[in-house]
Amino acid sequence: xxxxxxxxxxxxxxxxxxxxxxxxxxxxxxxxxxxxxxxxxxxxxxxxxxxxxxxxxxxxxxxxxxxxxxxxxxxxxxxxxxxxxxxxxxxxxxxxxxxxxxxxxxxxxxxxxxxxxxxxxxxxxxxxxxxxxxxxxxxxxxxxxxxxxxxxxxxxxxxxxxxxxxxxxxxxxxxxxxxxxxxxxxxxxxxxxxxxxxxxxxxxxxxxxxxxxxxxxxxxxxxxxxxxxxxxxxxxxxxxxxxxxxxxxxxxxxxxxxxxxxxxxxxxxxxxxxxxxxxxxxxxxxxxxxxxxxxxxxxxxxxxxxxxxxxxxxxxxxxxxxxxxxxxxxxxxxxxxxxxxxxxxxxxxxxxxxxxxxxxxxxx
Amino acid sequence: xxxxxxxxxxxxxxxxxxxxxxxxxxxxxxxxxxxxxxxxxxxxxxxxxxxxxxxxxxxxxxxxxxxxxxxxxxxxxxxxxxxxxxxxxxxxxxxxxxxxxxxxxxxxxxxxxxxxxxxxxxxxxxxxxxxxxxxxxxxxxxxxxxxxxxxxxxxxxxxxxxxxxxxxxxxxxxxxxxxxxxxxxxxxxxxxxxxxxxxxxxxxxxxxxxxxxxxxxxxxxxxxxxxxxxxxxxxxxxxxxxxxxxxxxxxxxxxxxxxxxxxxxxxxxxxxxxxxxxxxxxxxxxxxxxxxxxxxxxxxxxxxxxxxxxxxxxxxxxxxxxxxxxxxxxxxxxxxxxxxxxxxxxxxxxxxxxxxxxxxxxxx
Lengths: 364, 364
Ligand SMILES: CC(C)[C@H](C(=O)O)[C@@H](O)C(=O)O
Ligand SMILES: CC(C)[C@H](C(=O)O)[C@@H](O)C(=O)O
Prior knowledge:
Two copies of one chain form a homodimer. Chain A has 364 residues and is α/β, with parallel strands linked by helices. The first copy, chain A, folds into two domains: 1-111 and 261-364, 3-Layer(aba) Sandwich (Isopropylmalate Dehydrogenase), CATH 3.40.718.10; 130-245 and 253-258, 3-Layer(aba) Sandwich (Rossmann fold). Helix content of chain A is 40%, strand content 23%. Chain A has twelve helices and twelve strands. Chain A has helices spanning 15-33, 46-52, 58-66, 89-99, 123-126, 166-181, 197-213, 224-233, 245-258, 302-314, 319-334, 353-363, and strands at 5-11, 38-41, 69-74, 104-110, 130-136, 144-152, 155-165, 186-191, 218-223, 240-243, 266-273, 279-285. In chain A, the strands form two sheets. In chain A, strands 2-1-3-12-11-4-5-10-8-9 form a ten-stranded mixed β-sheet, sandwiched between helices. In chain A, strands 6-7 form a two-stranded antiparallel sheet. In chain A, helix 8 (224-233) runs parallel beside helix 9. Chain A is globular and about 55 Å long. Chains A and B meet through strand 6, strand 7, helix 7, helix 8 and helix 9 of A and strand 6, strand 7, helix 7, helix 8 and helix 9 of B. Strand 7 of chain A pairs antiparallel with strand 7 (155-165) of chain B. Bound molecules: 3-isopropylmalic acid (2 copies). One 3-isopropylmalic acid sits between chains A (76, 90, 93-94, 249) and B (194-195, 225).
């Protein structure tokens, strides 16, 4: 049997720093648990543009298609703000999502016990929170045509198209229902069916999939604006939320921030099963490239490390190893080890990115 | 001089109950301050559909075009969930917004001192909060064509179009900059220019208006997902936020909920000046029709009453009278008078909708 393969794309900003800590974890699994990964590395985002004039080369795209899982750090930064739309760092990430057809983006919004005080929300509102947002990732207004800036009369017009097919909605709905069955068996679907026809279709298709294939799961529907409200009011009412690409972008970021654990939250983007049965998969932290603190050793590597834990669980069916890694993170937090983003308590001295990585390796 | 004219559209659910309290306030201004309004009333939403088979008759639409200001309660309810899209209650409201060309929707997100404990956010995060969200209201994905559900191959496709012209962005940007000048002189514009071309145009046009006409105002830009995060983390960093129709829908609802004052928050939707110099205007509470508590005398009328205060300020240039009404509301809250939605403290008995209205009249 060949070793499972990983493509590591550290990207921009704090990406390389946090990814260096993930490599320590990967090495630990190889040395101590005999889990050896074939690791290769590549460029994505601004650093790829700097080297090759494109945020993702065809070669790296092909490599991503051929490995078992991709781990990505973060892309973007002010240095690239004035680049043409077609070569912006984000286009590299969007191309990976689209060409690998990673339609289900899993974003857990979890509040870590040791950090419940750290949220801007009251402790009882977030303590113990554990919800999963399933965001459609390969369609909707992110990719719909026509799009662009056009001249009309004597002014410019900006156009984007929200476009969802029945089968695109079906497959992400199934992902949400499957996840719910392994959790608390509840799905809430969010759209704006009161205003958008694409939302009407979304609601109808989710309901049909539910009725035919998952009648045992509890399903509710909510308008996305009400959903944003309810996430802020009492997020524990939710288990799994399923929503489209754009609503998912806003709602999952809001939910992540509510937990007070933004530097802690991983994500998995999954597609259809490959020949070996493993899903196409890309794992990345929810946080961005944080250019303001890049290169200073201040970044929190936990979100990226937990993204690797998600890879163990969803790509390699190693749930027990994922549990082990998550437990190590919890232990380090419980011990009071904190990177600078997690400071709230008095008198705690922050550790560096690499000290946090070392602490987690030690806890393993 | 003729009296200023008001069209009252109570709508559905709790709309009629809360509007009855506004009428007490209007009567008080007529009796005690000699401010007599010509008030007419009409139907919008589900109740109009029940009576006339349409959520807004042409007659009521014409009336709305001819008055100085429209006051609206709320529209919608589960009873109308299965209606065809074209006659849903919401279409009545959307037709008013579109045909009156009410492009600037002003949504203050304010935390009332007496209610700071009531938010799901920590007190220091929200106490004293006072931000203004300016949402574009007549364009974007709410109205763009093509739209609909189509057959393609052998499946359905749901389509909506985000479409913004330069002049649509310009005029709402001006509204935001004007407001900022009367406040803390800061505007933050939110879009997804990293993903959507309409967002690129939005950012460019807002920057151009800023540079040419409002260089004295501080302008920043934020991606809407980061905006959702920052609203949850530290909302006091903002003064005026300007954003498009759909992002504004979600962000303003989230912001409203953060204040803990959802039943308290008014809105104004303003268009171009009419022949008499007053802007086309519609005022409505941010909350919805709340069908679960409709008809029980439990609803909080304050959001609707404060919407009338906004009418005094923005349509009738009676800032001092608006201040008076807002002060009366603050006094009643400081006295501990609470409708059921505002209960949090132990041992407080809620007052009814009409008792709250009476208390505010008494405080005037
Ligand atoms: C970087 C950007 C293109 C991306 C998105 O909008 O999807 C990010 O915000 C995210 O949520 O992963
Ligand atoms: C009722 C609905 C059509 C409306 C909207 O989506 O604009 C509401 O949510 C609002 O924010 O005023």
